[in-house]
Specification:
- Helix content is 69%, strand content 6%.
- Helix 1 packs antiparallel against helix 8 and helix 9 runs antiparallel to helix 10.
- By secondary structure, it is mainly α.
- It contains 15 helices and 4 strands.
- A 4-stranded antiparallel β-sheet has the order 1-2-3-4, with helices on one face.
- The radius of gyration is 25 Å and the shape is elongated.
Amino acid sequence: MYGLLVSLGLVVAGLAGRRWANNVVVAEKLGCNAKKIEDFYRDNEVLPLRRYVLFPIYLLFWFRNPRARTELGLFRGLGLLSIVVLVVAAGREYISEWLPDIAFEEFVTATLATFIVETWVLMVLLVPMTAIVGRLRAGGEWRRAKTLLVVGGVSLAIGSALLIADDEVSVVTKERVALRTRARPDLAATLQAQALTAARASLAAGRSKEVAGERGRAFLRQLFKTDEAKAFRFDAFDGVLVYYVIGGTRGDRALWFAETAGGVPLRDLQALPEIVRRELAGERP
């Protein structure tokens, strides 16, 4: 998601920076030439909005129609640059969040759908924004073009802030937890047992469940990434201590571990309290 936001930010900056895009040699080679965009829309009408918003669906039209093909060439530079950013962001994510335990093949399998969706969203936003800004500039409506770009920039800033503040555990994070647990089963089992022991001792000392849960997560972070360890919710009731990931793929054994108050490990999902089973299944309590 961060890669998509950066890519869209580059699109806004590339469209806003006419002088920069026209004078920097590297930008010209990438095709980020705002003047060519303006010249095209000075002589050509903008296509119906659906052709731009549903760009991937109308892909055959864009390649077969000579006028549309010329227009598509105007988006080549910004589009290529933005997709490169998505690829680089994906590579950075693999290095920082998936290694050293999870194979590259597993990473591709888990994130390919997300990458395709991000590319689709990027093109759906890039093509109409470029066309509309180009047409406004070609018609001398600089103020409206600037307003559109400012709105785009503010929307990106708000989106970034919301993403940073979002505490919801992502599907990809859950997938990483499961894959890392299966990749290092012995270490995971040892740290999970230590986490439960630490949490139980903390509760016995009169600490709150929040404090007890965090004491246990300190052990989990020896294997799991910070966001992965944070994904485990801790609870203690009905004589059971349990760490689990909400919506954990229908109770996937890799996404929960538990024991009785006496320290006896639990292996059967049905031994967990009903509220935990429901949350593991993604149901609202």
